[in-house]
Amino acid sequence: MKNSTWIPSLTVVALTACGSSTTAPSIPEGTTLKVALLETTDLHQNVLSYDYYGLKPDTTLGLERTSTLISGARTENPNNVLLDDGDVIQGTLLGDYQAVASPVPCSGTMAIHKVMNALKYDGGSVGNHEFNYGLNFLGQITNTNFGITGVTAPSNCGAPTFPIVLANVVNATTQSPIFNPYSIIPKKFTGTAPDGSAINVTLNVGIMGFVPPQIMDWDQKNLAGKVVVNGVVETANKYVPEMRSKGADLIVALSHGGLDASTYSPKMENGSLYLSTTGIDALMLGHSHLIFPQAKEPGAAAIDASLKNLPGVDNIKGTINGIPAVMAQSWGRRLGIIQMTLKYQSGKWVVQPALTNVEARGFTYTDGKTAIAADPSVAPLVDTEHKATLAYASQPLGTTTDFEMSAYFALVGDVSAIQIVNQAQINYVQNFIANSTNATIASYKSIPVISCSAPFKAGRNGATDFTDVAPNATPANPFTLQVRNPGDLYLYGNNNLQAVKIQGSDLKNWLEKSASQFAQINPALTTEQDLVPSYSTIYNYDVFYAANNALKYQIDVTQPVGSRIVNLTYAGNPVAPTDNFIVATNDYRASGGGNFPGIDGSKTIIKSPDANQAVVSKYLSSLSKVTAALNGTGQSWSFVKTVTQGPVILRSVTGKLPVAKAAGLNRVIAEGAIDPNGYAKYQIDLSK
After folding, report:
1. Quick one: DSSP state of residue 46?
2. Of 343, 359, 386, at which residue does a domain stop?
């Protein structure tokens, strides 16, 4: 479907006095209105319940199942508004296929937008990953003229049929928002008059969107010199009064950011907590892929550790400084629901806080066990795109492997899915330096090149979210790698390879930050301790490697954050603070992503035009065979041996103890019970 081009000047749909409705004169004083705000967030092109990397169904995710939740919520709440909080177009091979391998033309519509149009979304915002494929592509698939020199203005291209808003990203030249900063949507609802009779009313729902300022670092290659990102609070303070003056009865902030209680800064990645004080009525959260508030289904796991004990945040009621807020996890696995009651008083609609209810509803919300079925109307809408993606994913790379590359136990030392990535990155940087005609780059030839990569798919997005390439491969039964496999090994196709020049002191600090993923283990405790208390930032657990496994280090998890790295050596010698290294990494990390001390873009020496995922793919294609001995067993790190009085656990996929044994991880000693989120609890012996 096509719609008219969205331009950065706002068309207001309701021009009335502040806080009043277009039907205000006919609404009796005391009339009540029950409204449900529904949220999806971080869908990441998970349209179907399908894993394109594993070429298998995955019933734990997918917008086709969220659609069933949406239908149920709409039945329960006839007065509803369906909104999306961003990170829609990128994240699976379906997204990469439509954006890179076979870009959707102007005459087409992205698969996920087809479905969202069919589900009749009322509005949406933009996430950081929307910028991954560049402004030309983003402008085309949203049919938006950004007004930026050098960026093509689309002409009647396929796009969402609902308004897309983004308030804090502006044209670097004109300072005008590149999307409409907000939209005021007139919704025809049925209220209840004081005498109990039904009454038709119009509620003007205002929505505005926000994205992390870090997009300027993460997508520098696409955005530098073209846009500027303003702070979320400053932006909200500018537009909330304007929205009220133009008739918004209810204002919803679509904030693609999580909750951070640090002192506010306009550069905060997760500044959503501070939006609660800007005069909004409801807050929809994203980006962190977490559940907020505490899930309500029977037997639900406790809320993520990173959300506990935040000032002004009620994890049970789902409020932030009294403002209702919801985060519906990611990949379509939940539907955010904010049920509100408004009363018409003194010529305006007034929220009744005591009657507000917030829920992040999952697939098993009825009994904690039985998953909902997929909406059968969704799959036919994207059948062509799905089949094309399957064909693309299955194309051979021409390389075989004799071992399983998995991340089930990456947090306790398995490098089977990480070493090959690091080897590919080292190979690229070494060749880049060796073949460079730049005198400065050429002068780095004598500096050791090391590499880091994180286990991107190691449980962050649920108990099915783990890298597992060639699960049945053995020397006697090798597996031929396919196009889909590099994406499983290196999830983020938008990351470009970069290299930084650092010293030994920087390396030590980098490793300390990575090691902060672990809990501080008390050896004397007899009760169970989680080795990894939160998987929400697993992409910040960088594992370092050097050719011939020359880099070695240990992590002492009994020590506090910042004092855990010991026995750091290179080629058998202790790493001195002034030793020089070149680290192959990605543009996200090199530019400051993850807030690693001293890694802020100032030490970058190589900015490659090539994506890390493509580098891995090309490296794999250059090898006729990938073997465990050469590419999957080079563990550079270990834990300092510690005897604990009680059990220490790691959460992973059930039934994978043989994988740990095959990888030689004797510290994984037993598989225990399955937790409420579906993870198996493996006992870890830190003395081994």
Report:
1. -
2. 386
pTM (predicted TM-score): 0.87
> What tokens were used for 637?
């790190």
Q: How far apart are CA 210 and CA 167, in angstroms?
A: 6
Gap between the Cα atoms of 310 and 454, Å rounded? 28
Q: Count how many residues are written for the chain.
A: 688
Q: Is residue 43 part of a domain?
A: yes
Q: Are residues 280 and 401 in the same domain?
A: no
6 belongs to a structural domain: no
Structure confidence by residue, pLDDT tens digits, 381-394: 999 999 999 999 99
Distance of alpha carbon 370 from alpha carbon 595, whole angstroms: 40
User: Hey, what are 166's tokens?
Assistant: 């983004």
Q: What is the CATH number of the domain that holds 448?
A: 3.90.780.10
Tell me the CA end-to-end span of the chain in Å, nearest whole number: 60
Is 225 in the same domain as 364? yes
In a domain, 11, yes or no: no
DSSP structure class, residue 474: B
pLDDT digits (tens, 9 = 90+) for 167-216: 999 999 999 999 999 999 999 999 999 999 999 999 999 999 999 999 99
Q: Say how many domains are in the chain.
A: 2
Look up tokens 């087809």; give the residue.
Answer: 114
Cα gap 272→284, rounded to integer Å: 9
CA distances from 229 to 41, 213, 253, 596 (A): 21, 5, 17, 21
- Where in the sequence is the domain holding 182, given as residue range(s)? 25-386
Q: What span, in angstroms and rounded, lies between the C-alpha atoms of 321 and 217?
A: 31
